[in-house]
Structures are given as C-alpha cells and as structure tokens.
Amino acid sequence: MRSGQKGGVENVHTMLRMVLPKGTSFEFLTQWDVNRIVDHINSTPRESLNGKTPYELALESFGEDTLKALQLRRIAPDEVNLTPKLIRYNR
Fold first, then answer.
1. Which top-rank group of organisms is this from (predicted)?
2. For residue 44, which phi and psi values (nearest 5 degrees)?
3. Which residues contact 20 (CB under 8 A, 6 or more apart)?
4. How far is CA 26 from the centre of its chain?
C-alpha cells in the first residue's frame, strides 16, 4: 500500500473506533453487528469521494443485486450512527 492510500484506511479505522472504542472486545459481535457497522461506515460521505459515500460508489460500480447479495444496505444520512449505541441499541 502506498503511503498516499493510508489516509483512507486510517479514516475507516477512526470511524470503527467510534463505534467500538479501543479496549472493546470483538468477541460479542455477531455477523449482523458487523454488517450494521459496515453499513453505517459505508453510508458516511467522504470528502475524498467528492461528498459521495462508499455505498453509492459501490452501487454505481456493481449494482443493487450485488450489494443485496453481500447483505450491504444504505443508511439514510440522518440515521447514520457512529457511536457505541449502534450495537447496544440493537440488542
């Protein structure tokens, strides 16, 4: 990975840590939990994507059927939750 690509990875890591703070055990996570976290992170607009979300770009590139097969879904902008309550709330 080139050094110029690391910023995006670090940004996603930061978002992941907003939901699962450092020291949080991942043992309790179900696949459903992981999918929801990914959905919320991928529904967050990025400056590096000209304000689009990773989900929107994936939809344009691969189509709705592929995203459904991967169990990925769009979260409305006003419903994106990048806090620990995302997982605790849904339990």
1. Bacteria
2. -95, 120
3. 26, 37, 84, 87
4. 16
What lies within 8 Å, CB to CB, of 80 at 6+ separation is: 40, 43, 44
Which residue shows structure tokens 């990875």?
A: 9
Residue 1: how many CB atoms within 10 A of its CB? Answer: 7
Of 79, 80, 84, the C-alpha closest to 19 is: 84
Residue 6 half-sphere exposure toward CB, CA atoms < 13 A: 4
50 CB neighbour count, 10 Å cutoff? 8
**Residues 74, 76, 77, 80: is their CA dihedral positive or negative?**
negative
Q: What span, in angstroms and rounded, lies between the C-alpha atoms of 33 and 30?
A: 5
